[in-house]
Amino acid sequence: MTPAGAEAALAAIVRLDILPRLIGAEPDPVAVALATELIASGRDKNLPPLLRGLVFVPLLHGDQPIDRERAIALFAGLRRETQDPVFEEIHAFALRQRDALPR
To answer: In whole angstroms, what is the distance from residue 34 CA to residue 69 CA?
Structure first.
C-alpha cells in the first residue's frame, strides 16, 4: 500500500463508517477490516495525525471489545506523540464512548 493507498483506504473508511454514522445509517463492517489492515501495515503513519485519528474511529465502534481497547491505545499514542490538546479531548471522548458501549 502506497501513501496514496493510505489516503484511498481512509476515504473508504470515511465513506463506509463515518459518513453513515453522521446520517444515522448503519456503517459497513468492512471499515473495521480496512482500518485494521491500514494500521497493521503501518501506512496509517503516512497520514497527518488528525487523519490518522479518523482511521481509528471504526475500531472504537467495532463489535469486538478488543477493537475498542485498541482504538483507545491508538488515540492515547496520538495524544503522546503530538502533545496537542485536541488529542487529549479525543482520547477522553474515546474513553467515554468505550465505557458507554456494552462489553
So the answer is: 17
In degrees to the nearest 10, what's the CA dihedral of 36, 65, 51, 89?
-160
Give residue-wise pLDDT tens across range 56-102: 999 998 888 899 999 999 999 999 999 999 999 999 998 998 888 76
> Position of cell 458507554?
100
The 8 Å CB, 24+ separation contacts for 46-50 are 46/3, 46/6, 47/6, 47/7, 47/10, 49/78, 49/81, 49/82, 49/84, 49/87, 50/86
**Structural domains of the chain, with CATH:** 3-100 (1.25.40)
